[in-house]
UniProtKB/TrEMBL annotation:
It is a multi-pass membrane protein. This is ABC-2 type transport system permease protein. Residues 143-368 form the ABC transmembrane type-2 domain. The lineage of its organism: Bacteria, Pseudomonadati, Pseudomonadota, Alphaproteobacteria, Sphingomonadales. Keywords: Cell membrane, Membrane, Transmembrane, Transmembrane helix, Transport. InterPro entries: ABC-2_transporter_component, ABC2_TM, ABC2_TM_bact-type. It is found in: Cell membrane. The chain crosses the membrane at residues 173-198, 219-243, 255-279, 286-304, 343-363. Its main location: membrane. Belongs to the ABC-2 integral membrane protein family.
Amino acid sequence: MRLANIMRLGIKEMRSLWRDRMMVVLILWAFTGSVYVAATGIPETLNKAPIAIIDEDGSQLSRRIVGAFYPPYFNPPVMITQSDIDAAMDQGLYTFVLDIPPNFQRDLLAGRNPAIQLNVDATRMAQAFSGNAYVQQIVNREIADYAARGAPAAALPVDVAVRARFNSNLTSLWFGGVMEVINHVTLLSIILTGAALIREREHGTVEHLLVMPVTPFEIMAAKVWSMGLVVLVATWFSLSIIVRGAMQVPIEGSVGLFLLGAAAHLFATTSMGIFLGTFARSMPQFGLLVILTIVPLELLSGGSTPRESMPQAVQDVMLAAPTTHFVKLAQGILYRGANISVVWPQLLAIIAIGVVFYAVALAQFRKAINTMA
């Protein structure tokens, strides 16, 4: 009877979700349009950076430098004058302004070591950080080629051979699309289960459940499996149709193994959603709690920034979060083709954390049910 009650209550939860049109739209958008927009909207390391050049020399070398900047890394250079620098930078028109001084070519050939001024708008952090090195490399290369004037370049004593594994073209789309799916698994599972509990309270159906021959364990288990199944199906659809199909992102490992890890992760995060739902009295309150919870879970799990670059205290604390182990498991399977012999420690850690989260959430849920009664 207990399994039958859990099954029937879970089907009731999915019917309630289907009648909540806004939640259905949220799920569809999160695992389709949101994944595509977020992945394709992330530019490459440097993409179409706006640059202006002040050519006070007008020499052959300065024209070579101007012609070396072109898409896709930079927009075609805009030629401005010395008096335009401050106004253009104040208005944020250009990320880089390169000033080639008068007599630059003549001083270079005379061995006087002339200087070129590069103005950088450091408020555009991503472009400023990577583009600064790009500009310097381009200018130095053009100067070296011009100074050599056809002379064969001296061979370096060491040849560095770079091999980019798992993403040979360094395409950010591959990373962005998969990580967006991974993040939405956590986000939607917390939202759906917490919203399901609050929806019961707002519609007054909690009282109906309390007079039925069902236990708090059965009520909570039904919400966990039903909402977890919805997210799991949406995850499979997103990986197969959006990531693999629309964005042509290669998936190296077993999707089935990833979904197994996702199911274990959903066991923990859905419990977390119910735990938060017992404290919130309305959807706005629940939304604020979700924001306070999901931001550190996603930012500190290792998906955006490698955990090794974080303070040791943060690394230790985040070992208690299921997202830390899920991100490592998902990246190992989907990016590097890892099998169960590689990711089993993360899988066991997720299951253990899920059991603890479920027990804590169930205790709080029983307390909340008794309060309502």
